[in-house]
Write a structure and sequence with these properties.
The complex is a heterodimer of chains A (266) and B (317). By secondary structure, chain A is mainly α. Chain A is 75% helix and 0% strand. Chain A has helices at 2-13, 16-39, 49-53, 59-71, 76-85, 89-125, 135-163, 166-177, 180-195, 202-207, 212-220, 223-227, 237-258. Chain B is of the alpha/beta class and 317 residues long. Chain B is built from eleven helices and 13 strands. In chain B, the strands form three sheets. In chain B, strands 5-6-7-3-8-9 form a six-stranded mixed sheet, sandwiched between helices. In chain B, strands 11-12-10-13 form a four-stranded antiparallel sheet. In chain B, strands 2-1-4 form a three-stranded antiparallel sheet, covered by helices on one side. In chain B, strand 6 (154-158), helix 5 and strand 7 (186-190) form a beta-alpha-beta unit. In chain B, helix 3 packs across helix 4 (136-148). Classes of the chains: A mainly alpha (266), B alpha/beta (317). The A-B interface holds A 3-4, 6-8, 10-11, 14-17, 73-92, 262, 264-265 and B 47, 50-54, 68-69, 71-72, 75-77, 79-93, 96-97, 99-101, 103-106, 143, 146-147, 149-150, 152, 156.
């Protein structure tokens, strides 16, 4: 596993796209800060770090899109074929699991990078933070943000291995991490429920707070919100992330390693 | 020792039977030419041997070890494969491609391994161009180098001569022969380019419609493709009986137009035998049997001929 991770890290670091992504993230976080500094426009102060000063909304989409690039490099299947033919039967399973683990590690790096760039932007902008959270809360918030991205990243890798199609995988990554697929599914179920005589949106009301997109949105609101108990389900978003996102990501990695690895390599 | 043995190897994709009950043997040290038309099951067979596809039925025994396929204690297989496409990462340099694979196989001196292999296949280790700027021939060489990472004992090459110019084809051929002779690598090559295959292969397997039609050595091939005599007689049936008596060492084959093709006898011998037997001869010609023609014949139909002609005309040689 370590050897495969080293190999993937090498090929990703030697590819151009990763540096393009880094440049875009840095630009998106630093450019507004510079604008604020030069034009003296924007907020006078931020209430807190995680809720307002360092927004991480949409980071799941970028993490999932990166996973699709890692697993669907245009001729990757040919390169994968070359590696898989040199691996024994058991090592094949490890190879599939490693793709998920590597993509999850990459998303963690992305989140940390975005956080550092955000902090840098905050310093550049010169906008003060009224009530910065303690370090442990910020760390927990970053961990939860990663946890919320994890199911989408793992599912994207699974879809990449199932479809072996770059376009399908990328579209899936963006739609799923944007919460559109789970939202559409839920509405569909609600519609069927209504057809069967139930009240429309009943299912959404019950299941909605447990959807990864909903949890990610609550976590994105900041560390304070993340730890506050939601009245509707009586569980903090951080706990819901542990209860929902962790098992979904783990199950997806297991399915990829145990089931998808048994498929023929095209 | 047999490096590859397949027993009743079968692969079915939904309704299509890609490989049908294939029994094949590749011995250690062979350069095995695997010949067949497009869609005959060559690539599928190679994928099953490489462990990239699971057989629907039957088994592949590698290195005489049915359990672990001769895998190393670290779990790596002893196979290097170049199947269907060079399988290179276009956005990296050739060296980076090789380093990435060497790292994946847990090699410590990945850079040195990459440089050695690039030199072996005739690519420049200091070339900083990304692979997408390479010609198809250079990509094929890189594909071969990738297959060689880990010093495999068995090399599976699917159409390695595709897209190569004559010089590159010769280089590839010589590299394969060197790997076989100097490093003892057993090589299985599938190809349409029969004249190249004929120059390197020591054994051949012919596959058609997923079935192995024949296996023979290089010597057997050249015996079978030696010269023959075509003779058209006024009384073919009587003439055949008399010639069989006069030339017991020869073999006879009737052609659709009634002519006989005699192998194992010279033109003079056939001529004398006809004269002695008092058989009227209407046509008597010496003919060479083309290797390509022989393979097409083995593959069972005339459609194959057009395939090979296309390959030739397309400059694949």
């Amino acid at each position: 596993m370590i050897a495969l991770i080293r190999s993937d890290a090498y090929r990703v670091l030697h590819a151009r796209w990763i540096w393009a992504v880094a440049a875009i993230v840095a630009f998106l976080l630093l450019a507004p800060a510079l604008m604020m500094r030069w034009t003296s426009m924007g907020p006078i102060r931020y209430d807190d770090l995680t809720g307002s000063a360092l927004p991480m909304n949409g980071i799941q989409i970028l993490a999932a899109a990166m996973a699709s690039i890692v697993c669907c490099d245009r001729t990757d299947i040919g390169f994968a074929r070359s590696i898989l033919s040199s691996l024994g039967e058991r090592a094949r399973m490890v190879w599939f699991a490693e793709k998920c683990v590597f993509s999850l590690l990459l998303s963690a790096v992305l989140i940390v990078f975005a956080f550092v760039m955000g902090l840098l932007g905050l310093l550049v902008s010169g906008v003060p933070v009224a009530n910065p959270e303690p370090a442990w809360q910020v760390a927990a918030w970053l961990g939860c943000t990663w946890l919320c991205a994890a199911p989408y990243v793992a599912l994207t890798v699974l879809v990449a291995h199932l479809t072996r199609n770059e376009s399908v995988t990328t579209v899936f990554a963006v739609l799923s991490a944007g919460g559109l697929i789970e939202g559409a599914l839920l509405i569909g179920i609600d519609f069927l429920y209504a057809l069967l005589g139930g009240e429309f949106l009943t299912v959404t009301a019950v299941v909605g707070p447990w959807l990864p997109a909903e949890i990610a949105s609550a976590v994105g609101a900041g560390a304070q919100t993340m730890f506050s108990v939601d009245n509707a389900v009586s569980l903090a978003p951080a706990v819901r992330a542990l209860v929902v996102c962790l098992p979904v990501a783990a199950a997806t990695v297991a399915a990829d390693a145990l089931l998808v690895s048994r498929r023929d390599v095209a | 020792m047999n490096v590859i043995e397949t027993h009743g190897l079968t692969k079915r994709y939904r309704r299509k039977l890609a490989v049908d009950n294939l029994d094949m043997t590749v011995a250690a040290g062979d350069i095995y030419g695997f010949v067949g038309k497009n869609g005959s099951g060559k690539s599928t067979t190679m994928k099953m041997v490489a462990g990239l596809a699971r057989p629907t039925a039957g088994e592949v025994v590698l290195f005489g070890d049915p359990e672990r396929g001769g895998a190393t204690p670290q779990g790596f297989s002893r196979i290097g494969a170049l199947i269907e496409s060079p399988g290179v990462l276009q956005s990296l340099t050739a060296r980076d491609n090789l380093v990435a694979k060497a790292l994946a196989l847990g090699m410590t001196h990945a850079g040195a391994v990459a440089d050695d292999l690039l030199a072996l296949v005739g690519l420049d280790p200091t070339d900083h161009r990304r692979v997408k700027a390479y010609s198809l021939g250079m990509k094929q060489r890189l594909g071969l180098a990738l297959a060689l990472v880990g010093s495999p004992d068995l090399l599976l090459l699917d159409e390695p001569f595709n897209g190569l110019d004559p010089e590159a084809t010769r280089d590839m051929r010589l590299t394969l022969v060197r790997l076989n002779h100097e490093h003892g690598v057993t090589i299985m090559i599938s190809s349409h380019v029969l004249d190249q295959l004929d120059r390197v292969a020591t054994r051949f397997g012919v596959i058609a419609d997923g079935r192995l039609r024949a296996e023979f050595t290089d010597e057997e091939l050249h015996e079978r493709c030696g010269s023959s005599v075509r003779v058209r007689l006024a009384e073919p049936e009587r003439g055949l009986a008399l010639l069989e008596q006069a030339l017991p060492q020869a073999t006879f084959r009737a052609e659709p137009d009634g002519a006989l093709v005699v192998t194992g006898a010279t033109l003079d011998e056939v001529s004398s035998a006809c004269f002695s037997a008092g058989v009227e001869v209407r046509e008597l010609t010496q003919q060479e049997r083309d290797i390509e023609e022989y393979f097409v014949e083995l593959m069972g139909d005339e459609k194959g001929r057009s395939l090979f002609n296309t390959e030739k005309d397309g400059g694949a040689r």
